[in-house]
Amino acid sequence: MVADRAGLGGAAQGPGEGPSAAETTMTGGLAVPAPGRRAIGVAIPIPDPHGSYLQSRRASFGDPLAHAIPTHITLLPPTEVEDAAMDGIRRHLLNVARTERPFPIRLRGSGTFRPVSPVVFVALAEGIGGCERVQAKVLSGPLARPLPFPYHPHVTIAHHLPDDVMDRAFKELAGYAADFEVWGFSLYEHGLDGVWRRHCDFVFGDGMVPAPGRRG
Q1: pTM, rounded to two decimals
Q2: What contacts 204, CB < 8 A, 6 or more positions away?
Q3: Would you say 47 and 102 are in contact if contact means Cβ atoms under 8 Å apart?
């Protein structure tokens, strides 16, 4: 299997590698990394009320990963790294954030990667260029790695579901609209319980802070 475009729910790879042993099922699950390694991702979190609303809609379609994956725009897809590399990765992300400034995003309507990938998403009408610029910086240095598809910023709302459910998700979100400003991005870690959690936030032009509910 190769990683698809679903974002944090995709299969993990190591930096600079092809598909790794962390890949598991077509539902986007990840195997437990080997001792001394962890699965991470970097993404722009979608702020509430938009994020919680889209997560609830994803759950309403029966997506089993809805409550395990916070609503986001992926910058670095699931990637397996050494524990010892984390300090360098955090420094790298901090340097990226310090070079950026907030930019607006407008979400408008739905799209799909089918038949190439079984994903339905909410599309970006504004902010694509900003996401592409930040993503290119994130995927450099210690996080440099190839991607199986060209980068296309989006917000997943259905992944690996029956075709009729994917069709319904596409139709029901066709008129969706939301506007917000991107303040920065977050580093996520994949827990042993299968849930992706924000480890820390990187604020544009500023620095690194613990994510809500974490002490560092």
Answers
A1: 0.85
A2: 97, 98, 100, 101, 102, 182, 183, 184
A3: no
Check pLDDT > 80 for residue 170. Answer: yes
Record the tokens describing residue 193, joined without a space: 């319980």
Q: How many CA atoms lie within 13 A of 98 on its CB side?
A: 9
Domains and CATH numbers, the chain: 37-106+129-153+181-210 (3.90.1140.10)
CA–CA–CA angle 163, 112, 9 (5° rounding):
85
Look at the chain and count its residues: 216
Round to whole Å and give the CA distance between 216 and 214. 6
- Cβ-based neighbour number of residue 50 at 10 Å: 19
Q: If you write DSSP's letter for every residue of 158-176 in order, what string do you get?
A: EES--HHHHHHHHHHTTT-
Query: Is pLDDT of 211 > 70?
Result: no
Assign 92 to helix, strand or coil.
helix
- Distance from C-alpha of 22 to C-alpha of 79, rounded to nearest angstrom: 9
Query: Which tokens belong to 108?
Result: 């408008």
Instruction: Record the tokens describing residue 7, joined without a space.
Output: 């974002």
- 25's enclosing H/E stretch is none
